Amino acid sequence: MTADELYQQAFRSEIAALGPQSLCDVGCGAGGLVAHAQALGIFAAGVDPNESRVAEGCAAGLDLRRGSGEALPFPDGSFDLVTFENSLHHASEIAQALAEAMRVARRAIVIIDPWFDLSIPSQAVGDRFERWLKRLDRMTGMVHWDPIPAGQVIEACGGGPTLAIAVRHVLHLTPLTRAGFEQLANRALPSMGTPEFSAAYEAGGMDREISSIRADFARTGITEAGALLMTIAK
Questions:
Q1: 13-40 pLDDT tens trace
Q2: Using one digit for the tens of pLDDT, what is the confidence trace for 154-168?
Q3: Geometric angle at alpha carbon 62, from 57 and 66, rounded to 5°
Q4: Is the dihedral of CA 63, 68, 73, 77 positive or negative?
Q5: Cβ distance 200 to 128 under 8 Å?
Q6: Ranges in the chain, pLDDT < 70
Q7: β-bridge partners, 26
Q8: What is the dihedral of CA 128, 133, 136, 138, to 10 degrees?
Q9: Is 107 helix (H, G, I), strand (E, B) or coil?
Q10: 164: which strand partners?
Q11: For the CA atoms of the chain, what is the radius of gyration?
Q12: Helix residue ranges per DSSP H, the chain
């Protein structure tokens, strides 16, 4: 089983332990979690801004809606759970997406998102590389935020005494290969012909940073992200 499969299994076990009768998955893509929930007899729907992915899921018989996490198309308390499966860091406004999730959820929101253990050298370099890649993505117009600390999520949800908050981290150290590193590090190349991008790349010191990361990779290697798992129950 790969690390990603282990993290997905942990997330779905977290959901199953709550025994929901309904859930809404925010940033659902083509509806993998929605299909999984339906197979367990849970009423499930999903929301995603990508029209083609939503159409793909709808063609498979899933209840998916095109929309954003910042404005969920459901009344208050429509679902037992609202879930974010590696999608919160793609929300344009993280606090607003969490506020909407709290509004629509009757019982809880459940989140999985990337996380690095900075006490491990290969993870610390991985975190640096992740931030470089996400900065690169934002330069091309993608919404792709840096790893989100648990405290930021709690604060955005109100963090009051009426909330029951469970936080845990899952990590299976998976080395990034040299070939994989170089493939990712070269992701900027197709955009370098765009004057605005190349100017921003140079002004931001992106070349110096990736050279420094490459040197650290040679010393310690890079291990891929672990997972932050959070359940915030009302």
A1: 999 999 999 999 999 999 999 999 999 9
A2: 888 876 667 899 999
A3: 60
A4: positive
A5: no
A6: 159-161
A7: 47, 84
A8: -100
A9: strand
A10: 233
A11: 19
A12: 3-17, 32-39, 51-59, 94-104, 121-139, 150-156, 178-185, 195-203, 206-220
205 backbone φψ class: left, alpha, beta (φ>0; ψ -120 to 50):
left
pLDDT single digits (tens) 191-213 = 999 999 999 999 999 999 999 99
The string over 166-196, giving b where at least 16 C-beta atoms fall within 10 Å of a residue's C-beta and e elsewhere, is: eeeebbeebebeeeebeebbeebeeeeeeee
The CB-side HSE value for 118 (13 A sphere, CA atoms) comes to 6
Are 171 and 224 a contacting pair, CB within 8 Å? no
Token readout for 168 is 């845990």
- Its pTM stands at 0.94
Give the separation between CA 177 and CA 170, rounded to whole angstroms: 21
Please provide residue 114's backbone torsions phi and psi, each rounded to the nearest 5 degrees.
Answer: -60, 150
CATH homologous superfamily, domain 3-233: Vaccinia Virus protein VP39 (3.40.50.150)
Which residue do the tokens 């996380």 mark?
115
What are the sequence ranges of the domains in the chain?
3-233
